[in-house]
């Protein structure tokens, strides 16, 4: 079975990684023999892989400390959660709890603000409800509402002209 | 997979897991001894500090013990443990503020790959002809550190730990198709970073 260059481009990485079945690898090998461009491309892929070999084969500079396994097993069975990482990624339940808490906290804060605003508003208003001022000023009162002495002569009568003269 | 059909090592792993779950410290210790070298080696891909490597390895095993009940008996214990180790190492980098670019910050990570077109058209030479192996390892390590964490991780798992696509998919919790496309992009990014840091290794079109 013949394959195209497009097919080869898709197959080459798996070929270099040893992931192809023989049924896939065989036509690719035939194509690589025929097609210089694809052969060069495969060669470049292989060259890139070779950059990793020395690092892979490098002996580990970090030796496992003596007694590591026994120490870890002891700590594990004692329920030690470890040093570095949070217990688990937050579970959906935990996230829901956090959301609920935030919602409740926001509601409480909003209610408190509303009550505070209400209290401030009440303090700045006259003692009675509504837009009317407390009682009508005497000059707006009807005759029934007016006190009996309303309209009486003012307390300080102007001096008589005769006296001035 | 029935327990009877498992490879001897895998069967022993499952048996040790069962014993550890019933409170046998020695069985868990044997599991740790079996995998400690590999987990230390993997942790070392993420940090050079011996103390940090030990911390990551230790936390990996402690986390594994706490989650032992979630281990699916039909899957490979080593792959399951690798998954914990990779996540522990990445969490560690994040905590230390050393996590490279994350997926959301990098538009290329979320785009669909187009095979044969990722990266520059320039190839890199194979390294051995010009450098000592220690120097190549140093350069490769430095280039890996330049890469966003998801690219670094696929290259570490494939090129250094030599996991198969299937194992990588299990460790990373992604499909084999995603492994292939991520690996393809990771190699292109590795090549670009290598050429940026060391243009002398350009091999031509």
Order of helices and strands of chain B: HHHHHEHHHHE
> First CA to last CA of chain A: what distance?
141 Å
Helical amount of chain B = 55-70%
The neighbouring-strand order within the major sheet of chain B is: 1-2
Radius of gyration of chain A: 47 Å
Q: What string, H for helix and E for strand, traces the elements of chain A in order?
A: HHHHHHH
The CATH topology assignment of the largest domain in chain B is Arc Repressor Mutant, subunit A
The average pLDDT of chain A is 76
- Shape descriptor of chain B reads elongated
Description:
The complex is a heterodimer of chains A (165) and B (205). Chain A has 165 residues and is mostly helical. Chain A has helices spanning 5-16, 22-34, 36-49, 53-57, 68-77, 92-124, 161-164. Chain A has seven helices and no strands. In chain B, strands 1-2 form a two-stranded antiparallel ribbon. Chains A and B meet through helix 1, helix 3, helix 4 and helix 5 of A and helix 2, helix 3, helix 4, strand 1 and helix 6 of B.
In short:
The complex is a heterodimer of chains A (165) and B (205). Chain A is mostly helical and 165 residues long.
Keywords, please?
heterodimer, A: 165 residues, elongated, disordered C terminus, B: 205 residues, mainly alpha, Rna Polymerase Sigma Factor, Chain: A, Arc Repressor Mutant, subunit A, 2 domains, two-stranded antiparallel sheet, 2 strands
List the helices and strands and how they pair.
The complex is a heterodimer of chains A (about 160) and B (about 200).
Chain A: H1 5-16, H2 22-34, H3 36-49, H4 53-57, H5 68-77, H6 92-124, H7 161-164
Helix pairs in contact in A: 1-2, 1-3, 2-3
Chain B: H1 8-21, H2 25-44, H3 50-66, H4 77-95, H5 107-110, E1 123-124, H6 133-146, H7 149-160, H8 165-172, H9 176-197, E2 202-204
Antiparallel strand pairs in B: 1-2
Helix pairs in contact in B: 1-2, 2-3, 2-4, 3-4, 4-8, 6-9, 7-9, 8-9
